[in-house]
Amino acid sequence: MKGAPGYRVNPCALEILLMGASPSIIDQLDLKKYGLKFVYPTTLISGLFEGGRRATFYKDLERTAVHFEQQFSKEDADGYRKMVSHITWALKAAMPYLMGPASRPSVGALWEILKTLLKSRKEVAAGARILMSPMDAMLHEYFKSEEIKIALGGFCLANFTSMSELGSGAYLSILTGAHEFGLRRPMGGSGQLTRAIAACVNDHGGDIRVSTPVEKIIVRNGRATGVALNTGEEISAKHVIAATDPLVLGNRLLDASDLPDTTHRQLKALDGTIAPINVFKIDLALRERPIFSGFGHEDADPEVLAALVLCQNMKDWYRSESACSAGTYDPGNMPLTTYFPSIFDRTVVPDGSEGETMYVYAVNTPYKFSDERTWESHSEKFVENCISTLETYAPGISSLIEDSFTTCPDQFEKRYNNYKGNYAQVGMASPTQLGPWRPIPDFANNKTPIDCLWNASAGSHPVPYLNGWAGRTVAGEVLKKMK
């Protein structure tokens, strides 16, 4: 960070979800050969509550269940074991399908799915029901404890949708799936994964250009033939792979005449279904680790503090969602999700430092305000309100800040070319945004109506979240075409 030399933060993703699922590009591309190393967090998330009560989700499932039984009830412990088992079996059944073209699963994939169904059909069915349901309904069904509900739901739902939306239960797999498939982060920050992939590409003769905006995709006679840069330069290609969300691809990078009317209507319908729920991100360099004494957690272990949901109950979460949908927020009720990446990875702070890097997500943030406020004029005040919320949990934290880096919804859109700042790229989990219907019929299977133009974004994958699998699927399809 400019104002805090030696501190390194992740402007976007921290977790690389389901990276432990096999086959992984880590092994397929032999990325460890290019210096990629990992750290392995022992905690997934903790919710801190009044009176020193906490709900901590450890990487170890049984440790989590024992903690729930001690802190809350046996029913909660058993409920979590059941939820994890149900979702895990559903994920195992779905994995072969999710790693290939959505409408054309291979015979091998179908056989693997069938074997899983034969082993545990009822568990898979129970897991599928969770994934297709509203998240809050499943939380109420499986748990008695309000603390478990808000910690689990708050962590999983920090991505552009409502806890009451049909299909939002799919996001519960983000945390529960980590028990089975593991959780690891690139040592030194997420950029180390990108650097390893870049080194692999260069090693195989590839050419990578950064800070080189594409103005448009060139289409001739119904076929993508290359891209035009904002400098006027044109680059020819046999295939064009667009790793951007479908609305940016269809509405910004292509001329209207390049796509049929049916595609334009599908994109317009898709735009109308995006919830107005967004996020505001703050990265902090702290002089030392803050003490969370505000609600009686001054003695909390570092691993407990490594990832936090800061919201006291479900009612506050619902009120926050409602305000966000109305184009505003309540400064006195700002649910936050926070991380201290440096607790498990000391390479992101200066050698010998007692400092910490902190990642703060203000969830349920409006994409646009319903009044005269803009993010350009209000970002500074919004950050002050977030820090004020942090002060209620960790008094004195503001005095520890060495530097900060903020990303408001506008900046998510401008910096990363994501439609409406939605980094999950059309992150809905409704039934029409799952499987072969995602993101729209004309862009299904990572294809487009334009020959040799592919969509390899998170928005094109059969499930709405960041995982990188869409890129691998498209790479495989293009290689087949080029043989």
Count the E strands. 14
The total of helices stands at 16
Sequence stretches where pLDDT stays below 50 over 5 or more residues: none
The gyration radius over C-alpha positions equals: 22 Å
Biggest sheet overview: 7 strands, mixed
Q: Ends: how far apart? A: 45 Å
- Total individual domains: 3
Helical amount: 25-40%
Query: Structural class, judged by helices and strands?
Result: alpha+beta
Instruction: Based on Cα principal axes, name the global outline.
Output: globular
Proportion of strand residues: 15-25%
The chain-level mean pLDDT equals 91
Task: Write out the strand line-up for the largest beta sheet, numbering strands in chain order.
Answer: 3-2-10-11-12-9-13
The succession of helices and strands, N to C, reads: HEEEHHHHHHEHEEEEHHEHEHEHEHEHEH
Features:
three-stranded antiparallel sheet, alpha+beta, 38% helix, 3 domains, FAD/NAD(P)-binding domain, 483 residues, 16 helices, Polyamine Oxidase, Chain A, domain 2
Write up this protein.
With 483 residues, the protein is of the alpha+beta class. The chain has 3 domains: 143 residues, no CATH class; 126 residues, FAD/NAD(P)-binding domain (3-Layer(bba) Sandwich); 140 residues, Alpha-Beta Complex (Polyamine Oxidase, Chain A, domain 2), CATH 3.90.660. Strands 3-2-10-11-12-9-13 form a 7-stranded mixed sheet, sandwiched between helices. Strands 5-6-7 form a 3-stranded antiparallel sheet, with no helix packed on it. Strands 1-4 form a two-stranded antiparallel ribbon. Strand 2 and strand 3 form a beta hairpin. The mean pLDDT is 91.
